[in-house]
Specification:
about 850 residues; alpha/beta; Rossmann fold; 2 domains; ten-stranded mixed β-sheet; six-stranded parallel β-sheet; 25 strands; about 15% strand; binds ligand GL2
Length: about 850
């Protein structure tokens, strides 16, 4: 291992060889030349014989070429300045389509549109060819993508490290209303945004055992003797800043068999076995685990985690630092952000590198390691906190387990010094859990090693201190902090909502896209009749755009003039899609039974978008129920023109970009204390939807900023939830005492939505009636009452539009640029390059 020899072997004499890399001309003509050149030389086709895919790939390469010089220059500048880099370690990056963002970052949109038109091609059609890289599950993965966008835009050196899954999040389809998963073959038609570097592959070891030996200086040392290994091949992706000339790197690792690995077996004479070995190695980066917030503890997942982390640490030391750099000073050059517990195995890996490979003493290594990491926790669900059994960890990474034990010994000694004789506390705080099996609590390991530990919204960070890690926050109060999440306005305002963006620029001038607090300047326009009319027209136009998309994409008809009520997020019991469903069934039941004339309903279309983890039964049954209710409600003459349910399959970033700008009402209805932050909630508010939501996650901060009058709050708050839980929660009591709730559940139990089969939805309904861990029945009445307020408010379109404008004006805080500023100041202690 070590530094590779790079560059020419003798002094270059051609003037171009030492000049900065060139960039194609920023003109329609230059663009057309470059595009046709790419089509002809890269795709090997003439324009007249090119497919839409050829054209897309050539277009992507063309735009890429405009970023290339800046990318190489960014890397040169960063190295030269020896600037501190953010190493963002994340198992997920939910990037969304790349082309639109690259066009935006290079200011090439108009040029591309004109140039392609001169070639007889349509930019929008080609943009729609792109299959989004879905290398994440939900909010956590999308957050990582927003953060690296913001860092590039703010001129901060950052390398995003992760896994190049061959298959991303599954493609969801519905068969008879049930979710069916298909593989996501995002690489099948080519991947123009990546640059593989097989020559820079890194070997990653697994298994085997450890040995003690005495080195030349007479020191006792440990050596890991692994039993197998794989290669990590880096694939680089550009992360362009917005119009600022910076292009950072996202480096994703792909697993391959090492030569030695199959040669060994091949020499033993078993060719078929050698080929199987290849497959075995490549399995490591084959597929993204589709569980969101509920990991399954699979061995392959631990292999994935160690694989990408080991590659990433080695990569920075060997390829980003100058030769001979003294690793005692590593923290001056990199700060690693641990995106949840998935990359936490990096902590013992850095210790191992420093001690076993670089000859550091334990104390020297800990001194460095404990300065290099910070940890972000993204959950409050106990089942989401990863615990790896010591049996598995010891088998896969025996040296790392030893190191974890020693970190724990040293840590518990410190606890004992601070709280002498408090054995109970020591046991509570141990990184090693003993029940139900001996395991390593990755969140504890992260907390012990990290300089700072943060939650992702104010309420979440408070609950993290008080409920998840109370002993740790008592021991190290200053270690804990909050950074409220944010979203990138480049993708989720400018790209997703160009018409609103133009309207904003007309009103307050340019510059707000990189200084989103400036949206405040829109406040006076909330009372400007002309602006209000334009704002409403933008919303109407976004609805039409969505209507057209859903027609072609899903053959769904969106009615005109409805309140568009949207709930899009992963399907999870704590998020309470079932509560939204009860509201729909309740409205429908009241009309059906004659309690309410259909004319009393505000015309409303509810749109769901949600994937369920393939092994999560309750979530899948809920999807089935939603689809069955949709089928019935949508064909019932009683509510025709008044109530409609749409559930387009395969919700993803691409669909989100069309759905969110069209929405009137944003559903953020998790049980208080369960949603760490939410980020969809921010995207909706920024695009002028009003929120109906609980006092949970970032909803709390959204409501504080937009004001109570412009936010529909309902349900128990977190202390009330805790109190109800302590006193004993009995969902059946709500069923007994609330006639409308009873009629609603009874209608489902009657088989009305399941062709007369009364048992089809037993799992969902009986779970609500007898367990209801997330207290949907307790919040039901408050929810439907608040929905009635929504309808009253919507009846006054002028007041609604005013509130929508104020939502936009007051939510600039939720730019991920602001989140990054917070991390820079309070956690990373570094600043943009100037
Ligand atoms: C999540 C939280 O559930 C969500 O509330 C939060 O907004 C995001 C980003 O911080 O992280 N945690 C988690 O495991 N997933 C999330 O979306 N998947």
């Amino acid at each position: 291992s070590g530094h590779r020899t790079l560059g020419p072997t003798s002094t270059p004499t051609h003037p171009l060889a030492t000049a900065p890399v060139g960039m194609p001309a920023h003109s329609v003509d230059g663009f057309v030349r470059e595009f046709l050149h790419e089509l002809n030389t890269n795709q090997g086709v003439a324009l007249s014989r090119s497919s839409a895919n050829d054209q897309y790939l050539a277009l992507a390469s063309t735009v890429r070429n405009y970023l290339m010089a800046r990318w190489l220059e960014t890397s040169r500048r960063t190295r030269e300045a020896k600037a501190k880099t953010i190493g963002y370690l994340s198992a997920e990056y939910l990037l969304g389509r790349q082309l639109g963002n690259a066009l935006l970052a290079t200011d090439l949109n108009e040029i591309a549109e004109k140039g392609l038109a001169l070639c007889g091609l349509d930019l929008v059609t080609l943009r729609n060819q792109e299959v989004e890289p879905g290398l994440g599950n939900g909010g956590l993965g999308r957050l990582a993508a927003c953060f690296i966008d913001s860092l590039a835009t703010m001129d901060v050196p950052c390398i995003g490290y992760g896994i190049r899954y061959e298959y991303g999040i599954f493609r969801q389809t519905f068969v008879d209303g049930r979710q069916v998963e298909e593989t996501d073959t995002w690489l099948a038609l080519g991947s123009p945004w990546e640059f593989p570097h097989p020559e820079a592959s890194v070997q990653v070891d697994f298994g085997g055992h450890t040995e003690r030996y005495v080195d030349a200086d007479g020191e006792e040392r440990t050596r890991w003797v692994p039993s197998w290994n794989v290669l990590g091949v880096p694939y680089n992706y550009m992360v362009p800043g917005y119009l600022n000339g910076r292009v950072n790197t996202l480096r994703l690792w792909s697993a391959q068999a090492t030569k030695a690995f199959d040669l060994q077996i091949f020499n033993a004479g078993d060719y078929a076995q050698a080929v199987r070995a290849q497959t075995f190695a490549e399995n490591i980066s084959k597929v993204l685990y589709p569980e969101d917030s509920t990991p399954q503890g699979k061995e392959l997942r631990l292999q994935q985690q160690y694989f990408f982390v080991a590659c990433s640490l080695r990569d920075f030391i060997d390829n980003e630092l100058e030769e001979g750099f003294d690793l005692h000073n590593l923290a001056d050059r990199i700060t690693y952000q641990l995106n949840d517990t998935h990359p936490v195995i990096a902590v013992p890996e850095l210790m191992r590198l420093l001690i076993d490979v670089r000859g550091f003493s334990w104390d020297e290594a800990w001194e460095v390691t404990s300065k290099c990491f910070n940890y972000t926790c993204h959950t409050l669900l106990p089942e989401a906190l990863e615990v790896w059994s010591t049996e598995l960890l010891g088998r896969l990474l025996p040296r790392h387990l030893e190191i974890v034990y020693r970190i724990n010994d040293q840590f518990l000694a410190e606890v004992d010094k601070t709280f002498p004789g408090d054995g109970l506390r020591t046991r509570r705080m141990s990184i090693i859990s003993e029940y139900p099996e001996r395991g390593v609590r990755m969140a504890y390991l992260a907390t012990v090693a990290a300089g700072k530990v943060n939650g992702v919204a104010a309420l979440h960070s408070q609950l993290l201190r008080d409920k998840v890690l109370p002993d740790f926050s008592e021991l190290w109060p200053d270690k804990f902090t909050n950074v409220t999440n944010g979203v990138t306005p480049r993708r989720f305002v400018k790209l997703a909502n160009p018409k609103l963006s133009d309207l904003i620029t007309d009103a307050i001038g340019p510059g707000w896209l990189t200084n989103l607090e400036r949206l405040k300047e829109l406040e006076p326009y909330a009372d400007d009749p002309e602006f209000k009319a334009s704002f409403a027209a933008v919303k109407a136009s976004n609805k039409q755009r969505l209507t057209a998309l859903l027609k072609t994409r899903d053959d769904i008809d969106l009615p005109d003039g409805h309140l568009l009520d949207v709930m899009v997020k992963r399907l999870h019991e704590y998020k309470r899609q079932s509560l939204k469903l009860l509201h729909i069934v309740s409205l429908y039941e009241q009309v059906l039974s004659g309690k309410l004339p259909a004319s009393a309903l505000t015309p409303r279309t509810v749109v769901f978008g949600a994937k369920a983890a393939p092994g999560y039964r309750m979530a899948k049954d809920t999807i089935h129920l939603i689809n069955k209710v949709a089928m019935k409600v949508n064909s019932a003459p009683e509510v025709e023109g008044r109530l409609k349910v749409a559930f387009p399959a395969n919700y993803n970033v691409t669909l989100a970009e069309k759905l969110i700008p069209a929405a009137d009402l944003s559903e953020q209805i998790s049980l208080a204390g369960m949603e760490a932050s939410g980020t969809g909630n921010m995207k909706f508010a920024l695009n002028g939807a009003l929120t109906i939501g609980t006092d949970d996650g970032a909803n709390v901060e959204i409501r504080q900023l937009v004001g109570d009058k412009h936010f529909f709050l309902f349900g128990m708050d977190e202390p009330a939830v805790t109190e109800l839980g302590a006193k004993g929660y009995h969902p059946g009591a709500y069923y007994e005492s609330n006639p409308q709730l009873r009629a609603t559940l009874d209608l489902i139990l009657s088989g009305h939505f399941s062709d007369g089969d009364p048992h089809a939805f037993d799992s969902v309904v009986f779970n609500l009636l007898h367990q209801d861990r997330f207290m949907a029945l307790a919040d039901f009445q408050s929810y439907v009452d608040t929905q009635a307020l929504v309808e009253q408010r919507y009846a006054d379109q002028d007041a609604w539009t005013r509130s929508a404008i104020l939502n936009v004006a007051r939510t600039g805080y939720f730019s991920s640029d602001r989140s990054m500023r917070d991390y820079l100041q309070r956690i990373w202690h570094t600043s943009p390059m100037l």
